[in-house]
Amino acid sequence: MRHSSSIEDYLEAIMLLADGEEKVTVTRISQAMGVKKPSVTSAVTRLVENGLAKHEKYGEIHLTGQGRKIARDVYKRHQALKRFLIDILAVKEEVASEDACRMEHYLSSMSLERLDKFIEYVMECPQGKPLWLQGFNYYLVHGKRNPEYMAVCSPRCGNAPGDTENSRNKELD
Amino acid sequence: MRHSSSIEDYLEAIMLLADGEEKVTVTRISQAMGVKKPSVTSAVTRLVENGLAKHEKYGEIHLTGQGRKIARDVYKRHQALKRFLIDILAVKEEVASEDACRMEHYLSSMSLERLDKFIEYVMECPQGKPLWLQGFNYYLVHGKRNPEYMAVCSPRCGNAPGDTENSRNKELD
DNA sequence: CCTTTTTGTTAGGCTGATCTAACAATTATG
DNA sequence: CATAATTGTTAGATCAGCCTAACAAAAAGG
Predict the structure, then answer these.
(1) CA distance linking residue B81 with residue B146, whole number of Å
(2) What residue spans of chain A are helical by DSSP H?
């Protein structure tokens, strides 16, 4: 079952507050999310109805296992999107965070998986920051390719080891 | 001013129908979007109220200049996201399209610009499909890096021409 | 041209998500 | 501990966006 982006936002905010060793209260959620307190009360009621949180009147709010799982998933998507925007597209952090906040609700698990692997592939390159990514930065700044990077783009004219004509993506779907 | 994702969806659908030389009617929009006709009538009313479309009773629906502009922007975001997912992350088309449909409403203009440039940089590499991307495909399939691709990852250990310690992203923000 | 079919609109209901205003419970403090 | 301040809830409104049912207008076809 899929939950609304609003619900996901509340779950995420509650998880982050709880992880920060904070007592999770209506007021704190309200401040963290920039909504009024009655909105929080009613949202929390919705969470409870959906089995995603526990809340006794005037007491603290806690996520259930299910709620926590969803919150973690949302947060994973948030982080993946944000890292991609910042580390690869060189979008400035503030904008990246806002975009991630909005898009985090809509990335499928398949795309998330691929995005995670892509970031890992790029950023954990055992030989440092990939040259092609530096080349992309150059391209962003100067509006054209730097021939010195291009030399490395595809030395064998696109034929890579073991990559025959149509091997691309064949085993992926 | 920002419009809701629902409004953007209607604009996009109307534009695509119109581009397809079709008469844009309530019924066609309804079919194209998978919503009932009264929903379309009321959505179109909202479009008209916002100056995004024209519609005389029982007649055809046309976008205004403003409406068309927004529709085009949405569609650009859609295409950029979809191309990225398919061509770079190797997500299968069906999933990519769905993801793009949902995320297209939430990508900032800054991120779109960067994403477009990134795709251009990668896909229009003058020497063919970049080796590193082929390496990523290998990584997806086999779960590990192919040493033959790695040799090309960053030959000079991360020091690229003219790339001194902190030049990264400096001129970008 | 009259009737049937298709198309479009109106009316009215529901849900999620927000808000303000007013009130109730809890906590802090002199 | 009594009162003030803070915190939380309730009540009630609004809005977008969808739906179904019923009706009205337009188009098609004998």
Answers:
(1) 28
(2) 5-19, 26-33, 37-49, 65-83, 93-103, 109-123, 131-142, 147-150
Q: Does A107 touch chain B (CB under 8 A)?
A: yes
Chain C, protein-covered positions (CB within 7 A): 6-12, 16-22, 25-26
> Helix or strand or coil: residue B21?
coil
Owning domain of residue B137 = 125-158
The answer to whether the beta carbons of residues B9 and B102 sit under 8 Å apart is no
Strand D nucleotides, any atom under 7 Å from protein beta carbons: they are 7-12, 16-22, 25-26
- The number of domains in chain A is 2
For residue A66, is pLDDT > 50? yes
Determine the pLDDT at residue B125.
78
Please list the residues that pair with A79 across neighbouring strands: none
Question: What pLDDT score was predicted for residue A166?
Answer: 40
The per-residue pLDDT for range A7-56, each reduced to its tens digit, is 999 999 999 999 998 899 999 999 999 999 999 999 999 999 999 999 99
Q: Which of A25, A49, A69 is the last residue of a domain?
A: A69
Instruction: Give, for A63, the enclosing helix (H) or strand (E).
Output: strand A61-63
**Span A107-156, pLDDT tens digits:** 999 999 999 999 999 998 777 888 889 989 999 999 888 877 765 554 44
A135/B121 CB distance under 8 A: yes
pLDDT of residue B127: 76
Q: What tokens were used for A18? A: 């709880």
In a domain, B91, yes or no: no
pLDDT for B97 equals 98
CA-nearest residue to A92 within chain B is B173
Residues (pLDDT < 50) of chain B are: 154-173
Cα of B78 to nearest chain A Cα, Å: 13
Q: Would residue B87 count as lying in a domain?
A: no
The set of residues with CB closer than 7 Å to nucleic strand C is A 4-7, 34-36, 38-39, 42-43, 46, 57-58; B 25-28, 37-38, 40-42, 44, 55, 57-58
Does residue A21 form part of some domain? yes
CATH of the domain at B57: 1.10.10.10
Q: Would B143 be classed as within a structural domain? A: yes
Asked whether the beta carbons of A98 and A85 are under 8 A apart, the reply is: no
